[in-house]
Design brief:
Layout (H helix, E strand, L loop, with lengths): L6 E3 L4 H11 L3 E6 L2 E7 H9 L19 E2 L6 H8 L3 E5 L5 E6 H8 L2
Amino acid sequence: MKLQNYIIHTKFKIIEAIERMQIIKTRDLLIEKNKKIIGTVSEGDILRAILGKKDLRNTIEDIFNTNFKFVKIGEEYKAVNIFKKEKVFIVPVFDKKFKLKKIITLSNFFDEFTK
């Protein structure tokens, strides 16, 4: 799957994030602002927004998480601990300049690292 499919802008509406998650079959998305990844939004974040009576037409700016977990290029093996501890479904991989290089999904992690 294309890297860009997992990335949405802060101006996306909550309902658009839900739709994207459904289309690409994921529970987490990366949030971009000014061409930089600045956070994640998960199904849990969205559920909390719904329970908090947020309008689904609001942008995700108020609900996404800026304290997200990632790994550096060459350290992809560390993703296993993130998947186990954080209960996330995607782990972004960044280079030294914090440029997004790839995304490890839980399903492709098992495919790649359990051969």
